[in-house]
Every structure is written in C-alpha cells, then in structure tokens.
Amino acid sequence: MVPRYTRPAMMAIWAPENRYRIWFEIEALACEAMAELGEVPSEAAKNVRKRGNAAIASFSQADLDRIDEIEAETRHDVIAFLTWLAEKIGPDSRFVHLGLTSSDVLDTCLAVQLTQATDLLLTDIKSVLEALRKQAFEHKYTLTIGRSHGIHAEPTSFGLKMAGHYAEFERNHMRLLTARAEIATCAISGAVGTFAHLDPRIESYVAAKLGLRPEPVSTQVIPRDRHAAYFCTLAVIASGIERLATEVRHLQRSEVREAEEFFHAGQKGSSAMPHKRNPVLSENLTGLARLIRSCAIPALENVALWHERDISHSSVERNICPDATTALDFALMRLAGMMDKLVVYPGQMIANIESLGGVVHSGEVLLALTRAGVLREDAYRIVQRCAMATWTQLGKPEGRTFRENLDADPEIAGKIGSEVLDAAMDSRLHLRAVDDRYRMIFGETNLTA
Amino acid sequence: MVPRYTRPAMMAIWAPENRYRIWFEIEALACEAMAELGEVPSEAAKNVRKRGNAAIASFSQADLDRIDEIEAETRHDVIAFLTWLAEKIGPDSRFVHLGLTSSDVLDTCLAVQLTQATDLLLTDIKSVLEALRKQAFEHKYTLTIGRSHGIHAEPTSFGLKMAGHYAEFERNHMRLLTARAEIATCAISGAVGTFAHLDPRIESYVAAKLGLRPEPVSTQVIPRDRHAAYFCTLAVIASGIERLATEVRHLQRSEVREAEEFFHAGQKGSSAMPHKRNPVLSENLTGLARLIRSCAIPALENVALWHERDISHSSVERNICPDATTALDFALMRLAGMMDKLVVYPGQMIANIESLGGVVHSGEVLLALTRAGVLREDAYRIVQRCAMATWTQLGKPEGRTFRENLDADPEIAGKIGSEVLDAAMDSRLHLRAVDDRYRMIFGETNLTA
Amino acid sequence: MVPRYTRPAMMAIWAPENRYRIWFEIEALACEAMAELGEVPSEAAKNVRKRGNAAIASFSQADLDRIDEIEAETRHDVIAFLTWLAEKIGPDSRFVHLGLTSSDVLDTCLAVQLTQATDLLLTDIKSVLEALRKQAFEHKYTLTIGRSHGIHAEPTSFGLKMAGHYAEFERNHMRLLTARAEIATCAISGAVGTFAHLDPRIESYVAAKLGLRPEPVSTQVIPRDRHAAYFCTLAVIASGIERLATEVRHLQRSEVREAEEFFHAGQKGSSAMPHKRNPVLSENLTGLARLIRSCAIPALENVALWHERDISHSSVERNICPDATTALDFALMRLAGMMDKLVVYPGQMIANIESLGGVVHSGEVLLALTRAGVLREDAYRIVQRCAMATWTQLGKPEGRTFRENLDADPEIAGKIGSEVLDAAMDSRLHLRAVDDRYRMIFGETNLTA
Amino acid sequence: MVPRYTRPAMMAIWAPENRYRIWFEIEALACEAMAELGEVPSEAAKNVRKRGNAAIASFSQADLDRIDEIEAETRHDVIAFLTWLAEKIGPDSRFVHLGLTSSDVLDTCLAVQLTQATDLLLTDIKSVLEALRKQAFEHKYTLTIGRSHGIHAEPTSFGLKMAGHYAEFERNHMRLLTARAEIATCAISGAVGTFAHLDPRIESYVAAKLGLRPEPVSTQVIPRDRHAAYFCTLAVIASGIERLATEVRHLQRSEVREAEEFFHAGQKGSSAMPHKRNPVLSENLTGLARLIRSCAIPALENVALWHERDISHSSVERNICPDATTALDFALMRLAGMMDKLVVYPGQMIANIESLGGVVHSGEVLLALTRAGVLREDAYRIVQRCAMATWTQLGKPEGRTFRENLDADPEIAGKIGSEVLDAAMDSRLHLRAVDDRYRMIFGETNLTA
Q: Which fold has domain B101-264+271-355+431-449?
C-alpha cells in the first residue's frame, strides 16, 4: 500500500522487524516445548530464549542488513533469518528449528500478523461505531426525506439513517471476529504435515502460547480456505464503507446540501475554482473500497493449491495481506473521523422535504382516501393526478402545492376533511417507530445517550 | 439469462436449433472439402448436403426430442446429433465427421455463434450511438452545470456531455470489432490438434466458408485467451453503460430534475406512493452492468487449461456465453431507447446553474483578477471569501448573490470593472470549444445534423 | 442456470409457484397480525387465509398464465400477483397488503427462498462429508506420497489427505450456517422502512412464523451486506470444491493413476480415442467453481445502494440467487457422488512412492546424519549429492537407488548404521500422527468407524 | 508492488522523479504553446523551459523533501510541485499552469507513464517470444504425448506446444499495442473540460510533442473506459502467463519429468528435504498472474465516475498502475528466462508416450478398422476392449501391450494386416502438420531458423 494510505500502527505489524520478532517467538516456543518433552537440553532452550530475546530487543538496521545479506546468498528468507539467529545465539542454535519446515514458521507467523492486524481493525470499527452512534442520537428525531431510486419517497429520521449504518457496522464487527477466528490457527507439523519429525504436542504448546488453535490438518501449509474467508470478510466491510461514503457524497451534492464533510479553515477545494468544497474523503473511501474488494478474488483463487501445497499463494499474499489490511485500517479511521465531524444541515433537510410541494405525502393521502371508502384504484388515480400536476408546476409562479391541488380536486371534495389531510401531511408521522428501532439496535439503556 | 432480460434475436442465436444448424454446416463443409481432396466420394458429399439441408430446414420439436433421447443414452451431445443426422442421411453418413473430434465441431460452432451475437451487439451499439447523437445535436448549446465531485464546477453544454458518451460508445464499437476478430477462428484439427487424421486444407475450406480464419495452433480446443479478451471487452462496454446510466440517475434525482426517463401515460412508479417517477431503466442497466462484468473473471480463469485441453471451461461457457451476450444485447437496446426518449429540461438546467448564486463563475473571476494584476494568492483568498459567503447565505432572505458580494468587496473595488465581471459571469464562455470538439467527434459533415 | 446443472429440488425453490406460495404466506401472516392488533376484521383475515390457501393448493399453469397476463398490463409483478389473489379471495382482498410495499414482500420472500436453498446446500455438504469420511477411514493407513510443488516430498496417508478435505468441508458447513443466519431476516416496514403505516409488531409476527428475525433497519430493502456475505460464503465453498476436484484431476493423470473417477460400463471417454477415461466430473466441478465464485463480485457491488434503496440489485439477484445456489447444489452432490465412488489404487501409490528410488526419504536421512553428529551443512551436501545422483540415473540400467548411493558414499560410511538407514527409509514413520489428527477431526468415538 | 517483484526500469517509471519530470514537461510545453499563440511572452516561456530543465536535470533528494514539505502544508500534490517550480524559475513562473487544472497535468502524466511502462512490457513480451521460438525450433520434431483432461491422448510435437504459446504471446503483443493506443491520449482542457480558459491548440501541441493524441472529450479527466480496457489487457496477458506456467508445473511433476526449470548449482529446493527440485518460478508466476488479474475489476469499477468527474478512481490507480505493470514486467521477464533455460527431456517424453503400452494409438487403429470396412460401432467396441485390457494390466508381469492385445483379438484377425497396425502405431504420423503450422506462425523465412 502506498504510504499515503498507511497508518503507522498497521505498518509496524507488516514491518520486517515484527516478522522476525514473531519468527523468533515461534522458534523459541518450539524449542521450549521440545525441552519439556526431553528432546532438547533444558539449558539450551533457556539459552536460546535468553540470547534470542536480547537480539530481538536490540534489533536494528544493522541486523536487517545482515539478514538481507545472507538472503542474497541463500535466496531463502527463513534460512537467512536462522543463520543470523545462530550468529547471535551461538552453538545452542543447533537446537533451533529442529524438524520444522519453513512453512511452519511462515504460516504461523502470518496467523499472528493477521490477528494483530485484525485486532487493530476491530478497534477501528469501534471508532466508526462511536461516530455513527453520536450522529444517530444527535439526530434521532431530525426529519429528512427518505429516497428510493434517488427520488423523494417519504420522510424519515436522519438518526435512523445513521442507525442503519451503525447496525451494518455492528454486523461487520461480528463478521470480523469470525474472520479472526478463521485465520488464528497454528501449524508446526513438518514436511507435508505428517509430524514425522515432530511431536504434535509441540504444536499445541506453541499455539496456546500464541493465542492460536492447532490446525487440524496442515499439509505443510495452513489450508487457504481460511484466508479466502478472511479476505471476503474484508471485502464485505469495504463495501459497507462504500455504502456510507456514497450516502455522504449524495448528501453533499450541490443540489442536496443536507450534510457536508468538515472543511478546514484554509482548505482549498480546487486550485482553479475557489468556490469548491468537495466530498473528497468519501470519494477516496469509495476508491479504497474497490481496492480492498479486489483482493477477494485472488484469495479465493489461492484455495486450490496442488496436492499438499504449492507456493503460488505466496506472491499473492505478500501483497494482499499488508495491502488490504492497511487500506482497510486507513479507510475505517478516515470514515470514523469523517462521520464524527460530519456537518449536518437539518434546516436544509426540511427545505428539501418541502421542495416538491408536499407530494411526498401522497402515500398517506392515498391511504386516507381508501380508509374513507374510495376504491384503491380510484384513489390512486386521483392522488397521482394531483401529485403530477404539482410536480409539473414546481417553481412556476402559477404553481400550486400538492395540498392546494388536493383541496381543489372535485373527486376529493367531501370525501375527507381538512384535518385528515393535515394529519396525512404531517412528517412527524414517520418518526413513530424510531424509539422501537433504537431499542433494537442500541439496547434499552442507551436510549437516553 | 432470465427471460425478462432476453430479446428474441439473441435467444435464437443460442437456441439448440441454431446450434444444430451450425453443427451440420460444419460437418457438411468438412465433407465437401474431403470430397474435393478426393477423400470422400463426391456423390456422398452431395447427398450429405442435400439430405442434411432438408433435415435442418424441416427441423422441429420432434427432432429436438429425438436428439435429447439419444443423448440421454450416450451422454454425449455431439454423438447424439450425429446419430440423429445419420438417421436422416442414411448410409452416406459414414462420410460425416471423418477424423474430426467433437471439439472441432463445438469450438468452431461457438465461434460462429459468438460472431452472430457480436454482429447483433454491433448493431445495438449503432442504435445507442444514434440516440446519443440525436441528443448531442439537439442540445449542442444547451447550457448545463458541469459537476466535479458532485459539486457544481463550471457550466458546460449538455450536448457535449452526450458527445462524450458518444465518443465512448464509438470506442466500444471499435473494441467490439476487435473482440469479434479475436474469436472468429476455426479449428478442424483433430485430436490434440495435430491434423494426424485430417488435411489442414479441410480447415481452411471450412473457415473460409464460415467467414472465420484458421486457428494457428488449436490443441483440440481453440485457445481461451481469445474468449477471455472477448468477455473483457463486454465488461468494458457494460461499464460504459453503467457510466451513462449513472449520469441519468443523477440527472433525475428529485433535487436535480434536469432530465428524466420517459414516463408512460398510465405508468405507476410505486404502488404505495402515487407521486413517484423513478429512473428504473437506468437502475436496471446499472445492475445488468454488474452481471456482465462479472463474466470477465471466470473467462480469464478459463485460459489456463491443462496441457492440450481440459473441459473445465465448458460449464463456464455454457452459461456466460449466452448470459453475457443476452444481457448486453438487452442492456444496449434498453439504453438506446432510454436515451432516445430521454426528457430533457433545459430550463431546470439554467435554474440549477443559477441556484448557487453565481459562485460557479469563481474560476473566471479569479483569472480576471489575476489578469488585472492581483497576486494569485490574494485573488484566490478574495474570491473564495466572496464565494463562501454567498454559499452560506443561500436561500436566506438576507442572502446576497456572488456578484453582490464581489461588488461589495473592498479589495476588489477599483481593480476590475463591472463589464469585466459581466463577461466573467457569462455562461456562454463555456461553449466556446463545442464546435471544435464536435468536429473531432462527429466529423465536419455532421456539424449541421 | 442451464438445466444440465440443475437438480429438481433446487429448481422447485426458485420456481414461480414457490415464490407465489411464499408471497401469499407473507400477506396472509401480515393480515393475521393486523387482525390480532384489531386493524383488520378477524373474519376477513380468516377468509383471506382460507381462500388463499385453497388457491395456492390448487395453483396451476392457468394461474401462472393469468398472473403473467396481468403483469403484461401493469408491468409490476407484485401488483399482478395481488390482483390475481383478489380474484380468488373476493372483497376481503382489500385487507391484503395494507400499508406494505412490494419490497416488504419481495425481500422477505427472498430471505425465505435463500434459507430453503441453504438448507438444501447444508444437506449436500453432509453428503460430501459422508463420502470423505468413508474414504478417510477406508484409507486411514494407506501410504501415498505427499507432494509439495507437484514434486514428491515425503509419504503421508491417503486417509489423512481425505481427512484434510473433510475438515475443510466441516468449516464450510459452519460457514454456511453463519451465512444462513445472515440472510434470514424479515422486513415488513413500509416505504423507506419507517413503519409509518405499519405497526412493528406485524413484522415480528411474520418473522417468527417464517423462522426469520426482524431486520433492525430495513429501508424498504433489507441491507445488501447480508447478501454479499452470503455469496462470498458460496464462493469460499466453491473454491473448496475446486481444491478437491484439482486433487482428483491430478491423481487420475496418466502418469499418476493413484485414483480415478468411477467409469461406467459402456461409457465412452472420447468418440475418437477409445482408450480414454477422463476425469470429466472433477473438471466440470472446476468450471462450476469458477461460475459460483464469479457471483461474489456483483453481490459485493450491490451493497452500496443509493440512499434508502435503489433497484440496481434486482437484476443481479434475479440471476445470481438461483444460478449460484443451483450450481452449488449440483456441484456438491456431484462431488459427493464422485468421492463416494472414487476408485483408489493403493498399489500404484506404493509404486509411486518408490518410483524415485527412495529419495523421498532424504529428509529423515538428513536428520539421522545430524543426530549422529554430522554438521547440518555437511549432511545436507552429502544427502543432496546422493539424491541427485539417484534422480539423474532414474530408469537407466546402471541406475542406483538412493539407498545404494548412500551406502556407497564415503562420507557416510561409519557414521550411521544400516539399521538406522532402514528406519529412516521406512514410510510407516509418516503415519505416526494419523491417530492424533483423526481424534481431532472426527472425535474419539469415531476412531473405529 | 513489493521490492521482491520489482525491476529497476519499471520502478524508475513510477518513481516521483519521473513523475515530476513529466509534470514539468507538460507545463513547459503548454507554456510554449501559449507563447506561440501570443498568450504568454516568448521570453518568459523560454525562461521557464531553461530554468525548469536545469532544475529537473539536477533534481535531488533535497528537491523531493522540499516538495513533500510544501505538500504537507497545502495537502495538494500539484500545487506543491508548482510552488517548488516557482522557487526554481522565479517571477516568470506566473506564466506556468495558466488556465490548467491539476487533472490536466495528472491525467496526461499518467498517460505518459503508462506508455513508458507499456513500451517496457512490449519489450518483455519480445523476450518471451524469443525464448519460446528457440524452444519451438529446437524441439520442432521432438515427439511428446498430447494430453486432454490430463490423460494421454495422442502424440504431438513439443515444438508445436511451444509454438502454440508463441502464437498466444504474439496475440498478447498485438493486444498490448492496442491497449497502449487506448491510453495514449492527452487532456489540456481545463475545468470540466470546456476549454473555457484554454485554447484547444495548446492541447494539440502538447499531445504531439508527447506522442499522444488529444482526448476528444475529457471532462477534466480522461474517460476511464480507456484504463479499464488497458488493465483488462494486462489481465489477459497474465492469464497467458499462467497457462504456460501451469504447463511447466505439470511437465516437472515427479511422475512426468519431461521438462524442468533450470536448477542452479548450489541451489536448495527445500531446507528439510535435500532431494527436492521444485518448479518455484512457474508457481510464482501463477500467483503473480492472480495478482495482475485482480486489478481488472477495480479498473472496470472506475469507469462510472459521477458526472464530469469524481476522484474515486485516484486511490485505485495510485496502486494498480504501478502494481500491475511492475508485477507484469517482472513476470514476463521471469517467464522469458525460465523458458529460455528450460531443461527438456526428450527421452522421458518418448518413455511417457510408451508408458501406457501403446493405447495412445487407439484412435488411428479405430480409423484403420473402419477404413477396412468394420462398422464404426463395432470397431470402437473392439478397440476399447483391447485398450482397457492393456490399461488394466499395466505394470503387471502378465501384462500385454496394446499391440499384443490387438493381435490376439479374434474380431480383428484377418481384418487388417500387420503393416497397417505398424503404420497406425507410428508416432511420426502426428508430426505431419508441423511444417504447415510453423509456416502459419513463424512465416516462410523462419522455417530454417
């Protein structure tokens, strides 16, 4: 991921230093487990741990360079690391990596890195939820027009709109927890995963210490259906980001102006057009969603490795693991900040509700007429006639409001009273279920938040 | 593809009758070529042609049933067809399919069907181009606001907007011609494509008669990079449909109302809300674009068949070949009709240009100030100040237009005259390149169209 | 989905009859709930239920034709159905669909259809698991070569190979249960989901009766992140099918011949080459996996509907809902049958293990040498030398086995005894963890199965 | 793209230095064009060119830091660059960027970078073609078994196999030329592309100098269907790489061993198993193909920008433009090297042809019998019987070859003579069309190459 979309905490997870730290941890734990099983001298295991810890604690650019230097020779990353480690540990290093394959270290390390990345993402979603919750409660009863097909339908509450996205991100949080469990497994099973040279208890020990579960059947590699499910989950979350970003882009349109991304003092929307204030954050999120989503397909194609394993997944994962998690981390935090600072214009929302001369109440008027005994087909014809007339005359001097057209309609006269029409055209009608839904989403205790 | 999105002409191309007609044609042509080469008695070839033609000409449901019946036994579609054909032709049928493999027939037939489908699609694009050209010329100088980021930028011409889409569909037409050439090849090369049992001149003969080129190396199958390129082209065209559909959806938004899909007398936008007129055609096109686009990935995954061939591509193509071409045919014709009948509201376009109090001219005012010697940084600050003030006061009783704010600005006073501001705020400025671009797109002779 | 890949049970779920049955059920339940709330006369609700049930029970082609006829007029599927229903129910039909939108019916019906489809798929996976379990236990200790990169690595058990796929399909079963919960929600919330004209208790009632949960915030539509997650799950399962299909394709290769799809008496592998027996089922599964996987992207693109809803998702779902579930149902059952009848050749597996002259034991020999005190680097060099020599001489008259090369190597002489080499080259070493892993996968009680 | 898969020449194209070099070139050319049109003092334009050239020629890390410093303030990359440039040029800098928008610079620069990248890729494909051509001619008549479904079919030539891939990469070369033309356009059209503040002749001038064509309708951005078509082409090429890589992976399988990636002296295939030589290059290429292919979908999703432009495509392109071209450059050159050094084992190819006891000649035997007057159905039954018997007895002491089974078959006796069977089982039969096809692919003059 380009630096522009990279936050330091996520970068650190995918940095070589962290990888080497985890590699050492896996090797040290395996060594300890072997010592407990009597396969390695206890003193040697302690020495590996002590000297290795010290080497990792003082890890510097010089160590990175040294490892790169060895890798340039051996063309094998794990062997390069082990050689460097041996230089630090001394003779006891011969008890390191005993019977393990490189994949044991690589795949278990990837599991640790992905769980670390996921923990960060889970926190990010919490930030999004906080921002959405804030807006949901601030605008619990803020009337706004609901739109289907981009066309004004009936009024709703802006808070409910936010609550709907909140509910989606709650689902995303739950999905990500499930996805985390998918990839949190450990493999210390040796060549083609038969434990021919390794006691399975070593794997159990390492797994427990790393907060992972042993992989039931690793065949030198952890099966890639797990990673496919993980990246699909990121794709779903990214699509949820896109939905909310699209909403904000719509709300900020010049003709709508119901909400706006925060615009910093001194910010320039365009070098050529000084009047511009653009929803650039939400547009950026739309693009990032496309990027994250695109990682699902290669992750799915990685599943069908040949026989016990091939290495075709490796080049894919070297890219999509850091890229997708980094982009999602950035996107979620950008979204959280954007929604937290979103500038909302309730007055413009009311103005927009009213901008079509009241036709948005056509549904309730239709029901009122049918309740008054008019046949549904007739009622529809009458109300549509009045609504279309209103629509056509919008903005014209001679234009009449929907109510005026209804009042003047001969077929309505005498059917329903003025107070019925008043009630039918009261936007507050559309807020009646807000409390009920907030209870469902935020729980009882949160209603006063 | 579900019947809802299927037009008869495309359905006919993918119908079993057409497939059997083409299969027979391939077999008959191969037989004729063998007769010319002296490998088959001339009389036999003539008989095959004559009786086969008659059988195909009188092809009925009974024939379909008979072929299905045989296939239920043999589990092989080509063998079932050949058996049926033998029943029609009699003893000379032993000169049919001599040395051919099923794939020779299947892949060459697919090439013919795809070229037929493509010819239909090319005609469809012509219809789209016609509709776009009509709107482009009707609204060549119709002013409308140009929008970047969904925010009013500067005026442009609605015709130019249409011309831009016209240019894209011209590109799509060209791409589809290229894609047609990609898949218009013929393979009559036998098992694993070695011509061990077939003279290559048979392939040349059949290819020429069918309007195809011989495939240089078919390995029992025509290589699938051709089909991948073809489906990618459909995906690009579908995305162009989505771009135009998205434009219409935006233009029809309740707050924009600059254009609208034609709404039939008696049409109902919503059963519950009589006032609704929704851009359902363009929304439908957006969904169809997603469907068509999704066929690109499996087509690309089909390329890496194992060795000389495997059959994994078959189940994919049985679906995506009819589905993607059928959906695209439907979508293009729906688009053509929609654009042809699009209701355009030039008055609302002007109203929208003016709705932001004139700030859309900030760019030209900025240039005017710099031309008058004001430092660009200062000019930007001044113009942004006036624009933001206008923006903030929009719709308020005390609100001032951009021009009023400029006129009242002490830093502008004396710098530029009133007539300079008049010129800077004249939307017609933005029409100056329309002629130039129309020449580039439609050619000289079309300027008066 | 083309008929070729459609099983009757899944076809029935997506047939119009089932859709109308569910539509009626939703309407009848909503009517009953309104009756309980006193909004509709109790007798009317009973009448709707009684006459409606009768109409659905006797539903025939004539009814289908009648509905199609009405839809051709009204261009609205739900209105067409309601009109037909009114004809069957009579005057009480005015209490049907009161305050509901079409989307309430459509989205809730889709939830029911998808849960029905998913229940079928869950059963299908059980069949796959049964077949895999059978092979796993039949071949628990059947030695076969483990392959990494397509190259012989070390022996493993064919049963463990099967157990690994069993574990993956257990995960797929669990994922599908989660996906089922994702889409099993109900929306009876009216225009833009505000319950303005509907008591939320109606939704709760309908949901409970249909085995669904109420959707917290439906905005006329059920949010599409649910469906995106669902289709991504199908894509993961499809990829698991592809992995197993790829394994079988490899095993059946002419050069490997360790297992084979069942070949029926009388079956023809090729019309031109009578000797052929091709793994056509597993190749077909590979293609179907591509198809199913391709549905994930449009489902993800469907998430970002505009505002409260647009209808772009509809054309996508009309295709991918039946297509992906139908293809997956077919693929799973084909896989189950294929694995159940898979012909396994343990003798050929042994022959293949031995075909490289024993070099597959190089890893254990390496360990034996290091255990005997040889430096790892030296040991590697020695063993690699012997292995490469063996490899090069394979099939040559003067060729020596790996063991012969080791025995003749001067650097090994005296380092390790013959019995150590015997042990190192005993394939049974690689079966030592099989019991442990079977316990983990199949549980204690299943070990004797 | 991670450094591991990045070659220096491609990295240089996407480096900031190159971007700034191109940005300056665009600005300098636009300034020159304005000077020619009399809109800018001629001396000023010369000064801009002279001082700018010098600044670019001496561009160093300090300049990069300075630009980053300004961007940190202004949050706008083009403004940061222009400010830096102004510091270098002095007062005449006010004639730079006159009437241009940032997009004019950005999109035209992207066109230049993509053409540079494409030129590199075209050269890479030439290297692949060279390697394939070499193998094709070296093994023009090298017999090898053709495989359909992974099962031995009939013999073919290894050279023809290579020639087939050569033909595919010729097509890829042609496609990439077309794709290059797609994206080689220039936009200097100002806000929303109306040329309100810019003479179209400026665009023509800049385009000509940069080797680009003017974009007919740029709407501040160059339309993204061009880039979508471009990335789809990369996806098709990547899939072709995967096909060839898959072939090599198959050929190197332990059971096949017909060809092998070059294995360096001293190379280690596995740290744990000294005998391993793995096709890691072709597996790596398989993964890279997945990565490159995955860029097609977001590029297609980028097409439907809103109205005249939004900025959602930007974050996508910042990643996929360098990533996809870099990965493809690396993959093509890796492929070229791999194919050039591919170790081919003709002896093993013959051994494999013979390994099934001669059944691979069943097709020609079948034809021979039918030519001798046996009914096709009978001939098939007889030949299949002999082939299956051979197959079943493979490797068994009592096993008979296909020929022996044919000779012993009572239904064959007397039907065809021994010399007919000799001819039918001569693999050289399958080389008869090689010359013909080589002429078609490589041309007449190349036949002796």
A: Fumarase C; Chain A, domain 2 (1.20.200)
